[in-house]
Amino acid sequence: VQLQASGGGLVQAGGSLRLSCRASNTIFNTFSLYNMGWYRQAPGDQRELVADIFSGGSTKYDDSVKGRFTISRDNDKKMVYLQMNSLKPEDAAVYYCNAQYKTGPESWGQGTLVTVSS
Predict the structure, then answer these.
(1) Which terminus of the chain has a smaller tally of CB atoms within 10 A, N or C?
(2) pLDDT at 27
C-alpha cells in the first residue's frame, strides 16, 4: 500500500489542523481491513504513536492527545484523518501515516510537518 499524507502547516497554540492520509494500491482493494495509524517524530526524538484506528473501527490514543485529537477513516475513499484541536507547542513534529494489513509489514507515508507557535 502507498500512503500520501497532507494537511500539515503552521498554527498558533490552541488552534486546529486536520491531517489526511490517502491510501492506494491496497491488497485486493481491502482498505477496510487495514489497521491505520498516525505517528509523529519531533527533532531528536523517536517516532511515537499518536493514534490508531483498527479495521473494526475501534481507536486508541496516546495519553498526551486524548480529548484533543480524533482519528477517523472513510473506507470508501481509502482515507484516514487526524483532527487535531487545542494544539500545543509540544505537538509540533512530522506526522506520519501508517498502515498494516493483518500481521503483514507496515507501510509508511512521507510525513507532513506540523508546526505550532506559542
Answers:
(1) C
(2) 77
